[in-house]
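4.2 Preliminary Data

To establish feasibility before requesting continued support, the project team ran the inverse folding procedure on a target of 348 residues. The structure was first converted into the token representation described in Section 3, and no sequence information of any kind was made available to the design step. The complete token record follows.
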């Protein structure tokens, strides 16, 4: 049996704990080194998951130099994805990086180029794809039951849900608010089901109306420096399709309206994310079709995500969530911010 892949973790904060569970459960890989600029974060994570205290680093460049690694898992805040990804590729590692892939399309392009040059995989941790809802919808698309998708909308709103932990509201570390935290998940899901059509323009509104003042939330509004607490946009694609997206951390809506949902309408059938539903004509009727048991997946999306990354490396397969797909999502996110700031439609 080949030796387990040797993995280095960069960024040992909250989401890294979910990733560590995945690494722990994978028989073909092992986290052998951890890097975090915070000593309690790296030491606490190492202790919790049984990583040697002798393999902890403050600087990822030192880790990449001193430890022989096959892959790195990057769980740093958004603004610190690009630099360690490129350094890891230069050190000959495959890279799993948290979403959003970067904070600009140009950074994402540089990450893709570095991966290609190193002939290593870049996988973006879009965990929603590994859930049963997404897998169920994808099966209907693959079976040709949806046809050409020409219109859709995706929604993930929080009425009052600004994160009061971590660096989410800090512009320097995170660069964006709900667009990067939540919007990226539903956009990736919708685009994946649409087979990533080429985006042409975005017309969006971005708003900061509630999170920068005292409301029913625990974060410090004076530390709120990301540009938006709500965003809504319309994307036009080269194939004529349109998709609207709306996301928020703070908005005066009911929980019912805020509920995560994705609706995609095609020439043969329509999809709804939650519960996974296919709408199509059968026997002269329009039928809503919801499986009693959806597509089988593991109990934990993060575990399945890491399994997919490891399997792709071991089998020499393409990245399960390639940088090129994340680039399309990132171009749209760039477009949402640019359009919101300019107050008009922009090309992406
Ligand atoms: N997939 C999901 O559902 C999901 C959920 C939450 C967060 N995320 C993403 O994961 C990333 C991290 O989020 P989090 O909530 O874990 O943040 P966090 O603040 O809890 O953890 C980030 C860690 O990175 C460390 N760090 C910062 N700069 C570093 C550097 N240059 N080198 C090494 N370590 C560094 C910090 O000290 C911290 O321990 C973000 O990009 C976020 O968007 C994804």
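Position-by-position output of the design step:
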């Amino acid at each position: 049996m080949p030796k387990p892949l040797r993995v280095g973790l960069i960024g040992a904060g909250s989401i890294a704990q979910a990733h560590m569970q995945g690494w722990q459960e994978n028989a073909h890989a092992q986290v052998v080194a951890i890097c975090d600029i915070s000593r309690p974060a790296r030491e606490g994570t190492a202790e919790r998951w049984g990583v040697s205290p002798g393999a902890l680093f403050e600087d990822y460049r030192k880790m990449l130099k001193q430890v022989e690694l096959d892959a790195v898992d990057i769980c740093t805040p958004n603004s610190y994805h690009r630099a360690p990804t490129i350094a890891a590729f230069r050190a000959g590692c495959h890279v799993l990086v948290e979403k959003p892939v970067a904070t600009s399309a140009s950074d994402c392009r540089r990450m893709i180029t570095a991966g290609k040059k190193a002939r290593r995989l870049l996988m973006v941790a879009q965990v929603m794809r590994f859930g049963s809802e997404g897998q169920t919808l994808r099966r209907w698309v693959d079976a040709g039951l949806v046809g050409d998708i020409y219109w859709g909308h995706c929604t993930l709103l929080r009425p009052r849900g600004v994160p009061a932990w971590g660096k989410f509201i800090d512009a320097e570390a995170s660069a964006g608010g709900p667009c990067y935290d939540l919007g990226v998940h539903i956009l990736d899901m919708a685009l994946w089901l649409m087979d990533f059509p080429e985006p042409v323009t975005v017309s969006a509104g971005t708003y900061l109306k509630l999170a920068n003042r005292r409301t029913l939330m625990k974060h410090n509004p004076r530390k709120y420096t990301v540009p938006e607490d709500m965003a809504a946009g319309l994307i036009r694609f080269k194939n004529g399709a349109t998709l609207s997206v709306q996301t928020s951390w703070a908005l005066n809506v009911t929980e019912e309206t805020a509920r995560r949902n994705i609706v995609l309408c095609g020439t043969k059938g329509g999809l709804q994310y939650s519960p996974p539903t296919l709408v199509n004509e059968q026997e002269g009727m329009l039928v809503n079709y919801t499986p009693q048991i959806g597509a089988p997946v593991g109990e934990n999306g993060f575990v399945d995500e890491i399994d997919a990354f490891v399997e792709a490396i071991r089998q020499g397969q393409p990245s399960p969530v390639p940088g090129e797909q994340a680039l399309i999502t990132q171009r749209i996110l760039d477009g949402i911010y640019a359009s919101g700031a300019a107050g008009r439609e922009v090309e992406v």
